Amino acid sequence: MKYHQINSGLFVKNRRKFMAEMKPNSVAVFNSNDIYPISADSTLPFAQHRDIFYLSGVDQEESVLLLFPDAPYEHQREILFLRETNDHIAVWEGEKLTKERAFQVSGIRTVYWLQDFHKVLNEMMTYADTMYINTNEHYRATVETETREARFVKWWKERYPAHNVAKSNPILQRIRSVKESEEIDLIQHACDITEKGFRRLLGFVKPNVTEYEIEAELAHEFIRNRSKGFAYTPIIASGNNANVLHYIENNQQCKEGDLILLDVAAEYANYSSDMTRTIPVSGRFTDRQKAVYKAVLNVKNEATKMLTPGTLWKQYHVEVGKIMTSELLGLGLLDKADVQNENPEWPAYKKYFMHGTSHHLGLDTHDYGLLHEPMKPNMVFTVEPGIYIPAEKFGIRLEDNVVVQEKGEPFNLMRNIPVEVDEIETLMNE
Hints:
By secondary structure, the chain is an alpha+beta fold. It contains 13 helices and 18 strands.
């Protein structure tokens, strides 16, 4: 891996939190992701399943974690299963985890080769009453591919029909959404890499540059700072492209007088950052662009203040909508009749700001978190309002990543990334 090794103490804490929520006499199993084929002998780059990484720090394929806090013997309470490595694999694929190295990474002392998994699991099942299966229940999930985890669940239910079944995901949704200090440091590091990429761009962007050239500059800066690259597919949307919320073609020329909406960010050690900035191709905003920009910035700043312990997700978005409505009235994009006659299910402001303001951030860009439960300290959120005006051929979105504090306003992990109009214009014209 490109990133520096994470102290295994983080994963020890994470396992303790999970096991504290398990039912008596129960087992939980977590599988790594598959390596997905493209065609012929080509594959996509491996990306580890975030749950097994969160609980073990293991970042390689064909790995399994078994947790059994009530096992009769101490060495059976945390077990890692890894693909057996050898000199041949080392030559063709590179170094894989040895049992000793796996302990250093995870803090787990009992490590078996994967070929022993079914034998060991069968013994654990004779002691246990309940199995925790790990299904994907994220509110945005739409999974068509049968994952390694899904295949295991299917096999396990056929093999052990007499055992009770419980779900890992509700536990993970809660504990993963509240970050340990080490996790916040890793997200901060990802944000710092993102800052370097953005500052690089401010001196690079000029009229007639292409969106893909901007993408290349970012990729260069991210990777040279130990990131695997983008935390998600980058959006580099110049001119009217910004009004397509998930524009990812990044193949157009950036024209003088246009704005570029940049929804781009680095990952670090599998942790995501998530930044959006909007900058002028020519290095100067027009008066109209500046007015809309400052409206979006004000909504972002006011929305950020609301991310405090006890805040309810649904009410938060209602309040942000009120602020956005006021800004749109001031810009002349809405009038009082629009607001008075609006559909409560789709308020008038949604014509220009049709997406949510915030989401959880962490190991996944849209991270775990139960939206019906109040916000808690050390949750990490994005704040990303936008105003999109197809008739004027530009859209503006601004996005920071913030940590909810015990008291007061959230801590902004992107506090050092330029966002004010004057700072952006100054840096682009140095």
